[in-house]
Amino acid sequence: MYHKVSDNFEWGVTTTTPNQFKAQLLELRRLGFTFSTILDHDPQANQILVTFDDGYSCIKEHAAPALEAVGGVATVFAITDYVGKKNSWDYFPVEKQVDHMTWDDLRELHAKGWEIGSHGKSHRRLIHMNHQEVHVELKQSKKHIEDELGSEVKTFCPPFNAWNSDLVTMIEDAGYSKIAISYPLSILPKWKGLFIPRLGVYRHDALPLFMAKLKVGPLAPLEVLQQQ
């Protein structure tokens, strides 16, 4: 799970540099992984799922070419009210706000085999909203992406990873069959669809720490603790 891939410095930890990202992809290829979207994932194959929350413009600028160089695709979770706009929903001051991809950007990635999933309309914590508001977030964001891209949206990513069993039921009722989460990674509630547990990748993840997300070793417990 990535957020931004950029050389621009910010105080948050969710930005991975382009050089870091390229090195990580090359290491995954060296290990024999191929890349898949969540929608097309084959659990019997040696595939890795790369996902991007929020849909920032730097993903098309830096991450997409790096993935294309290794024959890879990914899944982007778009915030439909903010497509083509600044991330004013976030906690950064105005001068530090960055752009989200436009619909043309998302269509271009989708045409290359990427999956565009929903991250809701407004990036609000859905578990703090009433059922009608949640219904609007789930249904309208899904329809907006489908109308813009011309293909069905089946994967939802709860903003801020804030979810519970009630929200899972509403997500299912809205027509999604997969939910991408980052915590917890096990002992998940049963439902008709599929959870996609993900490990976050952050600026401080040097290559040995990145590899600890994939293989059991001395550093692996640190990555589990970080995720918690």
The outline comes out as globular
Write the H/E string, N to C. Answer: EEHEEEHEHEHEHEEHH
Largest sheet: 3 strands, parallel
- Rounded to the nearest angstrom, the radius of gyration is 17 Å
Task: Outline the fold blueprint.
Elements: E1 4-5, E2 15-16, H1 18-30, E3 34-36, E4 47-49, E5 51-54, H2 57-69, E6 75-78, H3 103-111, E7 115-118, H4 131-149, E8 155-156, H5 165-173, E9 178-181, E10 194-197, H6 207-212, H7 220-227
Parallel strand pairs: 1-2, 3-4, 5-6, 6-7, 8-9, 9-10
What's this model, at a glance?
The chain is α/β, with parallel strands linked by helices and 228 residues long. It is 34% helix and 14% strand.
Structure description:
The protein is of the alpha/beta class and 228 residues long. Helices cover 34% and strands 14% of the residues. It has seven helices and ten strands. The protein has helices at 18-30, 57-69, 103-111, 131-149, 165-173, 207-212, 220-227; strands at 4-5, 15-16, 34-36, 47-49, 51-54, 75-78, 115-118, 155-156, 178-181, 194-197. The strands form four sheets. It has a three-stranded parallel sheet. The chain has a three-stranded parallel sheet with strand order 8-9-10, covered by helices on one side. Helix 2 links the parallel strand 5 (51-54) and strand 6. Helix 1 (18-30) runs parallel beside helix 2 (57-69). The two termini are 14 Å apart. The model has no long low-confidence stretch (mean pLDDT 95).
